[in-house]
Prior knowledge:
The chain is an alpha+beta fold. It folds into two domains: about 65-250, Penicillin binding protein transpeptidase fold, CATH 1.10.3810; about 325-440 and about 445-730, Beta-lactamase (3-Layer(aba) Sandwich). The chain contains 23 helices and 26 strands. The strands form ten sheets. A five-stranded mixed β-sheet has the order 2-1-7-17-18.
Amino acid sequence: MALPVVATTGVVVRDQANNAAASASASFGTIPQRSEILDANGRLLAYVYNVNGGAGASYNGIDRQPVTYSQISPVMRQAIVAIEDNRYWQEGALDLKGTVRALVNDLQHKAVQGGSSITQQYVKNMLILSAPNQQAAQAASQDTLSRKLHELRLAIAVAHQQSKEQILTGYLNDAFFGNLAYGIEVAAETYFNTSAAKLTLPQAALLAGMVENPSGYDPFTNAVMATQRRNTVLARMVQTGVLSSKAAAAAEKQPLGVQNATPDNGCTQAVAGTAAFFCNYVEQVILQDSSIAKTTQARAQLLATGGLKIYTTLDEEDQNAAATAVNYTLPEYSHVYNPNGNADTEVMVQPGTGEIKAMAENRQYGMNGTTINYAVNSNYGGSSGVQTGSSSKLFTLTTALEQNIPFGFSASVPDSTTVQGFSNCAGQPLTQGFPVQNDENSSSGSTSYTLYAATAQSINVFFAQLEQKVGLCNVVKTAANLGVTWADGTPLLKAPPKSASDPNPVPADDITSFTLGSVTVSPLSMADAYATMAARGRYCAPVAMTRITTETGASLTVPSASCHQAVSPQVADAVNYVLQGVLNFPGATGAGLGLNRVAAGKTGTANNSEYAAFGGYTPNLAAYVSVFHPTDPGQNLMVAPVNSCYQQQGGVLACNGEMFGADAPGHTWQLSFEHANLGSASANFVPVPGDSPLMSMGDGQSAPQQAGGKGKGKRGGNGNGNGNGNGNGTTANCIFFFCTGGGANGGPVQG
């Protein structure tokens, strides 16, 4: 029965060749190709070929990276031709004799020189890899006459449309080499941790021999068979005249030299390192961006198979600085410096662009650590958010300055009170009031503060009254205009979804303690708000990508920063002036946390030190740091010496009895900014003109200040330093304050 088959096939092949079939490209779909996520300098963060985003957001591709003809080692090209199709270079567009012989061998299950011509194998691989589903892939590899004839027709068309070099390159890019490696580039990485261009003769011979039976000749599991097959390829190269006997003999003596270097999929710690959390955030942004593809599933497929090159905003210098700082200040597994196991996360944003430059936390990313990114909203792989404490006074301060309340505006405030007279954005009165205090054991009486001094010293009662004066609704709108949302992305002026911890949520404009940071938000949104001030009021939404290109070089749309003027430059300049005082004003909460250049910031502590925070910036970089216990902040308070420990520069152990914003958060920020890319040291904030209406009552620094030391006093004035370190001091009044009461219509408050 074989002879009629041969005769018939010969006629078919001859007729197809003579008639030059129409373009074969329409017969092939897109061949999957892994995507790459790169930092701002083109450094690899991750290969992505499988996306596991849950139901409707997952897709399995293949680990494949095409290369050009010149990027394949010449000995690799010679080895594969010698063992698979030694007539390849001598024949014309199609080897008619070899094709007929290959068809007969295939149908009779004989393996001679790979059983098919390189062109046919190339076509078969393309049909399998571009199959839209598993059923089509199986059909493309069935041993049937109709499938073989269809494959021949396509091979003839391909042979007329592509050069020999193109076909050989395509074949090597599509061949399967075992261990999830498709194509010669990934095979070189997997077995030798090198590139296709750098393959040596013994390496090339091993890989060429594996194509026939990748599992049978797997050097990881069957080194003896793999060695024999490699030497068979070397012998075949001698027989075909592309290799001398001497060179073959020398290569045969070489050990296999394989390395199990299978490229990891996705944002693993092994490849992305400390940038793994940022890398995963990039994946999440792509999966949720409808401008890239219509559905989440389509976006997952594109990411896994589209050969995308995703260029991100991550700055290696900034990332290293942030990662070093969080892991130094609160090392995750240190029983000395972090016995409570507190989390420390920092995110850096470039003012004026919104570009995320760094994103770090003192945790390993992955199954052996956590995949929760504490810096971002929960809908992007983050947690349920953090409370911000007094770092949210930024919004009340900005609102007050927008209403032309000058730096020297003065108010005499008691140590504790209940502030009344709030209303929400609907004009509805919030009748319960806002109980607030500066320090739970302060003596009775009132003290006068200017706006400037009250900000620098973080006076809670002053800011509660200021919030009432400028309007709670206006303060919340200021925060919203600066990009702040609830941690799940819900706008602040809407109630977030119900949860076990909050079964009756309300909008932020119903929460009188908003100025003291009682709402849960993401550190990224806070960093971006502070970056807006550094950019003189120009708000840019945080962005993680600068461009995305496809395998063809086409560009895809990336999320825009949508930069616009959210706050007037004059008001932003005024905010910058006041917040510089947090770092250098006598008795300020952040005294001692300055840099050797101009900088500004704000401390924050929430609910019995459930959370501590620091937002700081220079003209060229802004960051936000949040510290808390990741499991249950409400039950694992950062109080008592053992739970408040952290490491200061120089290896100094600090256990102050309660974690404040100027402690681990402030020291994390300071350490990171001492090593980050801050640009020119001469960069400065724009000063407030002397004739500004905000200067109408002076600069705010000359009003009488509270008596006492500068330490972070608490519980009856038992301070713990001079504002920049350890030591013990006794203060008559505190300058970093804790408060209770307040919240939604008078619920829990942050200090």
